[in-house]
Amino acid sequence: MGNDMVSKGRVTIREVAERAGVSTATASRALSGNHPVPPATRARVLRAARDLDYVANAHARALVGGGRKMAAVVVRQVTSPFYAQVAEGVEAEAADRGWLCVVGATGGDAQREMEFVQLMREEGARLVILVGGVVEDDAYRERVAHYAHALDSSGARLVLCGRPAPDPEIPALVVEFDNEAGARAITAHLLSAGHRRIVFLGGLPGNTALDARVAGYRAALAEHGLPPEAAHVVDCGLGRAAGHRAMTELLKSTREFTAVFAGDDMVAAGALRAIADTGLRVPGDISVVGYNDIPLAEDFNPPLTTVRTPAEELGRAAVRIALRDPEHAAGAHHLLGTHIVVRDSVGAPPPGRAL
Amino acid sequence: MGNDMVSKGRVTIREVAERAGVSTATASRALSGNHPVPPATRARVLRAARDLDYVANAHARALVGGGRKMAAVVVRQVTSPFYAQVAEGVEAEAADRGWLCVVGATGGDAQREMEFVQLMREEGARLVILVGGVVEDDAYRERVAHYAHALDSSGARLVLCGRPAPDPEIPALVVEFDNEAGARAITAHLLSAGHRRIVFLGGLPGNTALDARVAGYRAALAEHGLPPEAAHVVDCGLGRAAGHRAMTELLKSTREFTAVFAGDDMVAAGALRAIADTGLRVPGDISVVGYNDIPLAEDFNPPLTTVRTPAEELGRAAVRIALRDPEHAAGAHHLLGTHIVVRDSVGAPPPGRAL
DNA sequence: AAGGGAAGTTAAAACGTTTACACGACACGG
DNA sequence: CCGTGTCGTGTAAACGTTTTAACTTCCCTT
Known about the structure:
By secondary structure, chain A is an alpha/beta fold.
């Protein structure tokens, strides 16, 4: 056996066909399995391909095939534990079907988001998944409507994870957690522990995910017979730094409270640190709950009681739903359930401040 | 102005050319900027493209251009904070140059790693970055040698982040942190706090990154005049669960120690939890240090003293180095520096057990 | 024995770009 | 006025695959 490996340039299907003594058409069919080919011929072609270390050119394939199995997931940043889990779910579900998955990080910049979607159009992605809450203003609505129509006209699907569709008529589907139910449940948990003065830390008006959590929080309060004034929302937005800053501020204020409901676990992380910095104890002096149950939430100080949103499942669901029912998908709205996970950051309110 | 947008099928460059009254060659030149075109003509083409919402077909482009600007980063899992940061660095550096970045997760499975690299060959990736330590056995060496040659023959570069090249002659370059120096530094930190009985939790023989940390640990001990028997390495591997299990085990054993050096921050997280479970205090009873300084390390209980490995910078460096000096790159070995970040998980050894 | 398929195969035409080559126009120096 | 160079543009040939339509064989039915 001589030197079969061609060192210069890529091996093409033509060379494989030649070596197997068939035409490129037959070789293509044997390799792709798109059309039946007698076992003997097939074996010969496969053998030739192996000998030559043949690698199909995905571009040529996509060019003639008019598209390719590729999904794109767009997040603010991949280092956010929650987004990372969603991306992992998308990647896993895509990989299961032999699809390629590319991830784009926008850093929260609309400009980069647009560029990335444009790139995905050029690349022929058949599925783009935008994940993460966002404040819903006119610019947002216009942007997403543009994506939806542009992608739709190229035969691609758009799914919005945790962010709203600007209009039910738009060719996009949304998959998200039932934020209101989750927030209501964990607020009720705090209430049943005896807390009456609970502050919500991490509001971001216009962000539909956060607004829903706030709504759930208010609803739970109301259900418990508390007056609307019992609700106190600090609109500090998300992120560890924001939580730390806002909590520090809050502790310096005259506001009375015995528990804080953080908009997500990262805010809770910042809040916990701020509380520890002032020498107060959790849950002895203040109880804290978070949202999302990121993987390290049980390593916080103390382990965090929070609501578990199965992020990886969200990612998987997004691609599954988008690919399952192509026609009926557009405009559909899917809600995923959540549940509380109880750890050590909630206790009874301190006696002196029970109300 | 009528209905310019064609609803069926994608707009091709031919239609743009037609509308602008030029040939496809001129249109291509105007759009890609590969060849000078008089401003007037150029403007006309660009206008037509905008009107038609033309989107170039990346596949056709790559097919004739023989490749594309695409980098691939392969990690065990994207939800690991450290890997996520590396991936973010790669993504950022790639995006800065207008490259596309795709990430693959292997779950530690060699089979999936091979499939992914194969896929990247088909897709024409020009840069693939394998990140994360691995035990270096024959299968590994063979696998990586295969990747290196296969990619090299398609004109792509291979970079290994935190894993060894099987052979200096192989066409791959490695970029990693100086694990031995980092481990030596943090061990010295423990020693200067008074600890003499330090156990290393998270060894994984054959894993070069961990072996280097163990070597640094032993070196620091030796430099302090301690006998080789002072070193005690628990080979439990990495991950939060492994750390928790091994620490629990260790606490039940008769082994005397006052400090533990965890192989990475996730192991430390598990260890901290195990210690807390038995009612012991950190750093009062036991001091703990980690490795990597993941974003949430300061939210551990207590905030973790660890060595900071700028993971995002590792990712950026990988693509920068690979793209900078194409010829000289192969076989090169780059070491990135690290430094200690001191928090609250290290204290003096308890008096009764100072040695 | 003729006709009708089925099965296996192939030649050639797509897919949408880029680019090598050629061609004409035009300016300029001789 | 004629070469010579430059500039702008167009024609057509790539790039590597899949697929349509056609063409053989060969077997089976009648």
